[in-house]
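Protein in question reproduced for absentees:

***
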Amino acid sequence: QVQLVESGGGLVQPGGSLRLSCAASGSIFSINAMGWYRQGPGTERELVAVITSAGMTNYADSVKGRFTISRSNAKNTVYLQMNSLKPEDTAVYYCNAAGATMTVAEFDSWGQGTQVTVSS
């Protein structure tokens, strides 16, 4: 079992910043990719950003230049720094991690989600 716990969501005005964190715990041998997804009202869940264990990153076009994903392999934690936030960034943000457990089983786990609301 691998658990992901997110933190850092909240209410922010347009143009503001927030930093999300997601810590993975449990029977972890290795984590390959860690990423952030979001689901806004009436929309499907979409990829926001992903980072590999080697530090390679990929971003949705809508957040390029505004959001930065990073991770601490030592802490099994991924971060999402969100700057210049817009009302359309309002969504529930979910953390995802995929890798292998100590029993050499693959895992693909999701966090419970954290609400980000951008509004004046």
About this structure: The radius of gyration is 14 Å.
